[in-house]
Amino acid sequence: MANELARTLRKRMTRHEVRLWLRLRELRALGFHFRRQVAIKDCIVDFACYHPRVVIELDGSQHSTRDFAARDAARDAKLTTAGFKIFRVWNNEVEQNLDGVLEKLLHELEHS
Questions:
Q1: What's the CA gap between 112 and 106, in Å, rounded?
Q2: 24-50 pLDDT, tens per residue?
Q3: CATH no. of 2-110
Q4: Least enclosed by CB within 10 Å: which of 15, 85, 93, 109?
Q5: Burial level of 107, CB count in 10 A (0-12/13-18/19+)?
Q6: Which residue range or ranges hold the DUF559 domain (predicted)?
Q7: 4, 19 contact by CB (below 8 A)
Q8: Distance separating the N- and C-terminal Cα atoms of the chain
Q9: Residue 10, pLDDT above cutoff 70
């Protein structure tokens, strides 16, 4: 069931996810292979790189509400227990400073 939902989400990516995805694919040349909308530990994450174990979660403004923050914290704990580092990015960062986001991400990948 999670795989079917992930497949649907891959077909309906937001413009911010598409923009980030196109740039993440460029990191293959450096040895970092990302998958999009991946089911891990009954969660569907936006992007995952299995070596090193890094998950990217792209967040919109709704994630700043108390309910979303609590749900995100629970997901993060579950993914961290599974051995993943969580890299959270706001949609507006992708829109306004994608190069900066990728620079921070690359640093995280190289030091994980």
A1: 10
A2: 999 999 999 999 999 998 889 999 999
A3: 3.40.960.10
A4: 15
A5: exposed
A6: 3-110
A7: no
A8: 31
A9: no
